Amino acid sequence: MIKVGDTLPDATLMEYSEVEGNGCSIGPNPVKVSEATGGKTIALFALPGAFTPTCSAKHVPGYVEKVADLKAAGVDEIWCVSVNDAFVMGAWARDQKTDGKVRMLADGSGDFAKATGLTLDLTGRGMGVRSNRYSMLIKDGKVATLNVEAPGKFEVSDAGTLLSQAKA
């Protein structure tokens, strides 16, 4: 499992864009993790799935609510990563009103989750292998803090916890 001090895996996530611009076409666009995190401080949180109850009611809204506070604490971008396809993440972004606040990034095949060692096997619930629920503060591509939830919990990966760590 990835730990504090490690460099993020060299993976490619996908981001759905509804507006063409800044070198992005409409539709899914690749986001190379190593390039996108270089020289930046990223508040990354990951979760088991788009449109799921805790993720939609608490996890994403908490980060949307604390965008200004996180930015004031030195965070350049906020990323939400889930093992879903880019189209689902795009629809969820519209539903959660994350535009300009949280980048909703798809880990469609779970490659990023597998590379970090932070997978969650939900095959018994019909969801396959997903990402565990966690948050991390990333500085220039390296893990500065890591908060991994126990199964079924939502206690340490919330926006308030990561904000406290960003301020420290």
Tell me what you see in this structure.
With 168 residues, the chain is α+β, with helices and mostly antiparallel strands. It has one domain: 3-Layer(aba) Sandwich (Glutaredoxin), CATH 3.40.30.10. Helix content is 30%, strand content 30%. The protein contains 6 helices and 9 strands, in the order ββαβααβαβαββββα. Strands 2-1-5-4-3-8-9 form a 7-stranded mixed β-sheet. Strands 6-7 form a two-stranded antiparallel ribbon. A hairpin with a 2-residue loop joins β8 and β9. The longest helix has 13 residues. It is globular. The two termini are 24 Å apart. The mean pLDDT is 93.
TL;DR of this structure?
The chain is α+β, with helices and mostly antiparallel strands and 168 residues long. It has helices at 33-37, 53-65, 67-72, 86-96, 111-116, 159-167, and strands spanning 12-17, 27-32, 41-47, 77-82, 103-106, 119-122, 128-131, 134-139, 142-148. It has one domain: Glutaredoxin.
